[in-house]
Structure formats: C-alpha cells, structure tokens
Amino acid sequence: MKSYDRLFIGGEWVEPSSSSVFDVVSPTTEELVGRVPEAQHADVDRAVAAARDAFDNGPWPRMTPTERGAVLTTVAESIRNDMQGISELISNEMGSPVSWGTLAQVLAPTMILDYYAGLSSTFAFDTVKDGLLGPVLVSKEPIGVVAAITPWNVPLFLACAKLAPALLSGSTVVFKPAPETPLDANVLAEIFADAGLPKGVLSVVPAGREVGEHLVNHPGVDKVSFTGSTAAGRKIGAACGANLKRVSLELGGKSAAILLNDVNLEESIPLLMPNAIMNNGEACISLTRILAPRDRYAEVTESLVEQVRAMKVGDALDPATEVGPLVAERQRDRVENYIRIGQEEGAKVAVGGGRPDGIDKGWFVEPTVFVDVDNSMRIAREEIFGPVLSVIPYDDDADAVRIANDSDYGLCGGVFTSDNDRGLGIARQVRTGTYMVNSNVPIDFASPFGGYKASGVGREFGEDGLELFLEKKTINLPAGYTPAV
C-alpha cells in the first residue's frame, strides 16, 4: 500500500482542495494498493499559477540547456537506482508483466532522459544565417507553460517522453497522469524534487476527464501535449484550435504486420510477437492486424496460434508471466465485447477467446487469435487495446499494401520477408509514422515518432520532440554585426 495525502504542486507537497481521492486497485489481486488525492479545478489553477510564475520570473528558463540537462541526468540515475521497485509499482497499478515492465516501463524512460540530457549540449537553440540585408538570428525559445496529459498503459515512459523535452526547452509543466496510475507519477515528482528542479517548474495533478478539460482550456497554459485515445484527441485538438493554443497529439493505432510470401516463419513469428501482444495488448503501437499471403494462410495461422498458446498468463509480478491482467474490469469488459463482436461478424477464434482457467481473481483475458477476418470487420478496424490479433489474408504485395493502408490509423507497422530490399519497398508505400523491416524495434528515441491520419499530430522523440516545446523567433540584425551565440 503506497498512499499520498498531498499533491505535488509548484515543487511542494501541499494540501489538496478537497477530500476526494483515487483508490489504486491491483488488476491482478483486485486489492487496494495505493491512494492519492484527486486534483480539482482549484488545484489545477494553483499548479498553472505556479508554472506561470516559474516561467515568467524563475531561474529555469534562464538556465543554460546543459544545466537543465544535468537535472535530467540526475533523474535518470535515480530511476535506475530503483528499477525493480518502480517496475513492481507500475505492475501493481496497471498489470504490466514485471518481466517486460522492468525494461520497457522503467529502463526505457531513463534512456529518453539520457538522450535529451545529451542533446542539451549539441542542439542549436540559436542559429545565425545570411539574410536579405544582413545577418538573421533564429532563436528557439521555450514555449511556456505546458499541460502534459498521459494515459495509464506505459505511465512512466510517457511521462518522461513529455517531461524530458519540455523541461530541456526551458518550459514549465503541469502534468496530469491517468487516475489508474498516479503512484509512479508521484514517485517521479519526488525524484525531480530531489534532483534540484526549481520550485514551480513541475506540478503533478492526478485527475479525471472533467478536470483534464479544465487544464486543457486554462488560459495560463501555452501548449498541450496529449497521449491517449483518438476520440479524446479530437476534443483536445478542437479546444486548442478554438484558442489558437499549441497542441501535439499521440493517439491510437491499428497497425498491420505484413508477412510476405517469402517469409521464414521460424525467424519472423518470434520477431513479430513482442510487438503483437506487448504489455497485455495495451499498446498503441501493437501490430494487431496480421496480413498473411493467401497461399500460406494456414501455415501462418498455425505458427501464430502455436506461439500464442504457449504464452504464460498470470500474476503481473511473476517474472515468468508474459500476459498479465488488463488495467481494469471495464477494460476486460471492452475486450470481451470485441471478442463477441468478432464472432458475430463471422470471424473464428483459433485460440483463446475466454478467461484463463485456474485464475479466480484479476481482470484477465486469454490472448486471442481470430482467423477468417476481413479488413472491414470492426475487430480489424477499431483499436481493441487488449491481447487480440486478427489474421487477414491477401493476394499479392499490392493487395497487402492496400489492406494495410485501409485504416483510419497510421501509427506503426512492419513487414517480414527474406528480401530486405523488397521489405523496404513495402515500407515506403505504407502510410504510417513508424515502420519496421524485419525488426522488432518500433521506437528509436533519437528519431521522430508519431502518426499519420487519426493517429495524431506532431512527432515525439529526437530533435523533433524538443521542437514541439520551442517557439522560433527571427531577429533581423544590422549588416556587419555578428552576435555571440
């Protein structure tokens, strides 16, 4: 049981404005594992005011980038010093298998922090170039007060994906974690405070949708960075558009893995699986549509079913577990509803489809593979966010590309083939922001990540991720003057 009775606002632990709390329940045991105050409008107002004052008057935007980067380095080191403890905390919050979470939920955030700490000494915040009548200084300045809003599936990872570049820019942040995963957010706040982050630069306000809307629409916020569902992203984008407020959106996906007819299944299926049912299927980049050549459809299906049937389902804290429980009972209900829909639409369950035997508690769903799926079916078009795969037949390469692109989403994807040149040709035709050719690495922290179409607006990671939190200012200078940069 990890409980907090105060909110981290303006760099201090303060009394919340109400007695309302969020109870954090383990998806494995259904038992209470934590409690935090639920932030209200007044708490958000206080956090934004602190961020505004820290940006307008405090030292953080006026420190050098390398000084800010040093804080990120200290935070990364502190997280690494307690990787197992933080990984277990996140598993208790949302059910991610600790075997996967130690690397993806905890180590990966430190890699993001390290990348941006390193970028602090190489990124050109000021550039001088020749203009029409004299030199021009292009200065990249911090965007201001940032509202960072994240979901529950990879909570520390997404927090660092936003906080690291936002803070490196010199901006200040009001961070709203999901109600399901506020504990690791508060741990991160403690780590930042211990690392010497100045007062007011970071606040953490666990809250629900209504208070989140208040934060998005707050006149003191200059930029909203959101990761979550496409439906919520549309509303946030509309609100920011109405106020001409900067916004970036990393949204849903329904990514396709194309197995070409020359594929070596013994090599490619094990390479594919970590990105097909990762994090219990609760990942926007999951390759949940498996496109198989019609003349090898039975062979592909058999190989997939064999892999999925062998996956160990169980306690998220058991190192042997590969698939843990879903985050909440409502999420299990959602996934089970999609399994019913798939069967009603005519698809067949080749493996899974129910709840695992011998597990009496927890919000578990068996990893499931549907066959005889048409891309027009809802299970092939809508983001299920659970361990459910759809195997879709195709006729030739052009048909595979057509099916892959026949989606409202465009976040990720992959192709598996014995010919890398052929695979690259496919990659260039599929309209997604990230793609893998015979690879199981969907994200590179030094390269842009984001989506086409309904999968979002903007690119995180790499220099692009820092640019999201910078405004460009052009300063025209007199001829013969060379400024120091």
In a nutshell, what does this entry contain?
The protein has helices at residues 41-57, 65-80, 83-94, 98-119, 155-169, 183-194, 209-217, 230-242, 265-272, 297-309, 329-344, 378-381, 397-405, 420-429, 462-467; strands spanning 2-3, 7-9, 12-14, 21-25, 32-37, 126-130, 135-142, 145-149, 172-176, 202-204, 223-227, 246-250, 255-259, 287-293, 348-351, 368-371, 388-394, 409-410, 413-416, 436-437, 452-453, 456-457, 470-476. It has 485 residues and is an alpha/beta fold. The longest helix has 22 residues, at 98-119.
Keywords:
single chain, alpha/beta, globular, Aldehyde Dehydrogenase, Chain A, domain 1, six-stranded mixed sheet, 485 residues, seven-stranded mixed sheet, Aldehyde Dehydrogenase, Chain A, domain 2
How would you describe this structure to a colleague?
- The chain has helices spanning 41-57, 65-80, 83-94, 98-119, 155-169, 183-194, 209-217, 230-242, 265-272, 297-309, 329-344, 378-381, 397-405, 420-429, 462-467, and strands at residues 2-3, 7-9, 12-14, 21-25, 32-37, 126-130, 135-142, 145-149, 172-176, 202-204, 223-227, 246-250, 255-259, 287-293, 348-351, 368-371, 388-394, 409-410, 413-416, 436-437, 452-453, 456-457, 470-476.
- It is an alpha/beta fold.
- It folds into two domains: 2-251 and 455-475, Aldehyde Dehydrogenase, Chain A, domain 1 (3-Layer(aba) Sandwich); 255-437, Aldehyde Dehydrogenase, Chain A, domain 2, CATH 3.40.309.
- It has a seven-stranded mixed sheet, sandwiched between helices.
